[in-house]
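A further point concerns the way the authors explain their paired sequence and structure data. Each protein is reduced to its one-letter sequence and a matching series of backbone shape codes. An entry of this sort, consisting of the sequence and the corresponding backbone structure tokens, reads as follows:
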Amino acid sequence: MPAKLVPIRIPRKCSGYEVRVGSGLLESSGQWVSECVGKGTRRVAIISNKRVFGLYGDIVSKSLISAGFETAVYLIGDGERYKSLRTLEKTLQFLGEYRFSRTDAVVSLGGGVVGDLAGFAASVYLRGIAFLQIPTTLLSMIDSSVGGKTGVNSAFGKNLIGSFYQPSGVLIDIDGLATLDRRELTAGFCEAIKQGAIAGRELFDKTADFLSSMVPEWPTTGFADTEEDKALVDLIAAQITFKAQIVEGDERESTAKTGASSRKILNFGHTLAHALEKITDYKRFKHGEAVGHGIMFAASLSNKLELLGQNEVKLLNDVVQTAGPLPRLRDIEPSQIVEAIAFDKKVVNDSLQWVLLKKIGAPVIVSNSSIPQHVLIETIHKTLQD
């Protein structure tokens, strides 16, 4: 099956990069890196974690060496708590000790934590060296690997320290998804549902149909050249195409933009999600699991504000539940949520910007100052008890 190519255009740079999606692509990753960075690059740093590198590190390393690159490997811890300033400092120290130069490159091999951390390191090391993404989770394939957001978490919030730094290319091999556990799949599909909810019925229905037909019998071995893997490649490419359209129009998430073309709409479901992750010290939830809860919360809040009909609230909840079970919420105090969202990165002019829905495909940005406090608190209570 030939790979699908999704171009990402960056108007600010009058250029862009390409996302390559297909099966069996890791074996030729060295040649792909060479095509992306050109002839001047001699060395490549592979940033990964122990589990992912144990699965795919040899394939990627051998391919890079075959393509003429010298390689060095740095492994970070597995999980959101390792997306930190401490890990960033150690990664930069590694690049410095190996004397990586402005003409060398960083390749991230892993999920969103690895990609965000490696991208941030590449953006600040020597004020920027080439960076390429090989995402290995569904969530990182359709979301964090595309768009140029990099960063780390801190004590005062998630992703509040970072940079906009576009990769030179993204390589997505769907064969890697066969090794994901059920929670990682659920997390990825919750993010896909989120994007479908703000994109419109075509992408939403495409995602929901794939969930209902494919997820119950998700393959535990590699994908073959079948209709199912073609459907998966098509879905991932469609998800990326939608995100690319938003990024192209608002690469740096302008604070002045508040309409449906604003990059802020990609944060649908994320305000509660980031709060849940923060107050549980990034240990209880996969990011997409928290987004799943966030989608249902945002739908409920939209309904209470008389923006979204009850039928669409039910539809969103049903599709999220199809993606898989989510971690519990009942032991979380509403006051913890209220405190955590006060430091959300979507605060503009001292007021949090909520991304809500008028209908599927019609996101709207609503200032926290225009939402009655009792409505917000009631919705938080209801969500934590459901």
The first strand starts at residue 4 and ends at 10. The longest helix spans residues 227-249.
